[in-house]
Amino acid sequence: MMKIAVFGLGYVGLTAAGCLTKEGHQVIGVDISNDKVNEINKGLSPIKEPGLEDLLKTAIDNNLLHCTTNAGEKLGDVDLAIVCVGTPSGPDGSHNMSYIAEVSRQIASSVDRTRKTPLTVAYRSTIRPGTIEELILPIFAGVLGPDIGAVQLVYNPEFLREALAIKDYFNPPKIVIGTADGSPNIHMDELNKNIQAPVFYTKFREAEFTKFVDNSFHAVKVAFANEIGRICMQLDISAATVHKIFVSDTKLNISPYYTRPGGPFGGSCLPKDVRALQYIASDVGAHTHLIDSLLRTNEAHKHFLFEHCTRTLEKGSHVLLLGLAFKSDSDDLRESPNVDLARKLMQAGFKLSVYDPSLRPNHLVGQNLGYAYSHLPGLSNILIGLEELEKGSFDAIVDTNGSAPALSLDQSKVVNIHAIA
Ligand SMILES: NC(=O)c1ccc[n+]([C@@H]2O[C@H](COP(=O)([O-])OP(=O)(O)OC[C@H]3O[C@@H](n4cnc5c(N)ncnc54)[C@H](O)[C@@H]3O)[C@@H](O)[C@H]2O)c1
To answer: Is 309 one of the catalytic residues?
Structure first.
């Protein structure tokens, strides 16, 4: 069993402290609030969280938990310090990092510099990517100087939900351990050894960003669901039935599909139908701000990718575009983002060749033909075959569909926009 100090006894820290004692660890709770510390030391919970007060009472009775306002010398034989202080919104929307900075200074000053094994300091508060490297590490380095090896920093985001916090603590959706080089940390592995969940070892920044991605996605889901709900209410559609059908689709809807950063959306259906839903929503006064932003954010992404592909290229460079249709094995050019990219490249003065084995210009018909020639009038002149591709010399190869690795090309010239790494 380990000796663990928990800094910040709010919703996250106090739940962690209680659950750690349930596992048999010895816990020192540290908070700047005298009232909180006194209450917890009496076995009372200052916050309402189902099951927590029982855990705290048992821990105090069994001498597994003691709380204090000053860690002082007490970190001497502690294996692991877990930081759960608040990071509330600042006036400009950024996180207020003053509690993080302050607690880091306190921990750095309380570490025994002569300790045999480093103290693991694991941050659980939500902090912006780069905080460990740019704020916390310099604080420790400033205080500890050449003894910086006395600590090992970890970022370990917290995924619990209030009111279900104890259940979530023992059954998290995942465990993310961020370290300087992405390697495991012995104390974190010991901490999590009884918890069944997928474990991801990453560098600091990916671990720090995880929580922002999760919480923003949850917010997108709630906002989207409510926009759909508003449209349903206005049109006398049962939102409950629509929801039931929606979540039953675990192939395309509730699935990893359409979640990987990469190319913009396009094709003959998505842009058209999003545009039409926008029209319906505004017609019935549903004010669907999220849905209304989809085409604009998609256009922004198209431009971002164009700049990403051409950042290092000189005007007049020869660019090979792999894939013109909206996806591979299709010859549908309607609203293909790759057509927009091709047009932008040509307008910006690049020499463009396009390789798309699914496309035969003289086979394009109907709206597809009209779209292709109104957006790329010189289409037949820029399409090349496999032989030309293999003989050609290109300054950059833009891979829109993941086909580059299988082709005989200078792979060092490939810019992959199909999947952003
Ligand atoms: N509440 C949640 O459901 C939840 C879930 C996941 C992540 N988080 C993140 O975890 C962090 C903590 O959230 P919370 O809801 O528990 O916050 P909270 O405000 O309930 O608790 C923070 C505690 O830290 C204490 N504190 C401040 N400075 C301190 C210091 N120098 N030393 C010791 N204690 C100090 C405060 O007195 C307070 O008791 C935040 O970054 C939050 O975004 C919260």
So the answer is: no
Angle at which helix 270-283 crosses helix 204-235, to 10 degrees, equals 50
pLDDT number for residue 276: 98
pLDDT of residue 105: 97
Mark the ranges of the chain whose per-residue pLDDT is less than 50. Answer: none
Question: What does the pLDDT read at residue 230?
Answer: 98
Site of tokens 């979540």: 247
How many other C-beta atoms are found inside a 10 Å radius of the C-beta of residue 195?
14
Residue 33 CA, closest ligand 1 atom number: 37
30 CA distance to ligand 1 middle (Å):
12
Global confidence as pTM? 0.93
User: So what's the pLDDT on residue 237?
Assistant: 98
- Residue 104 Cβ < 6 Å to ligand 1: no
Q: How many CB atoms lie within 10 A of CB 38?
A: 13
Domains of the chain: 3-197 (3.40.50.720), 207-301 (1.10.1040.10), 312-421 (3.40.50.720)
Nearest CA to ligand 1 atom 31: 103
139's tokens: 């604080």
Specify the ligand 1 atom closest to the Cα of 165.
3
Check residue 366 and give its pLDDT: 79
Q: Is 100 in the pocket of ligand 1 (CB under 6 A)?
A: no
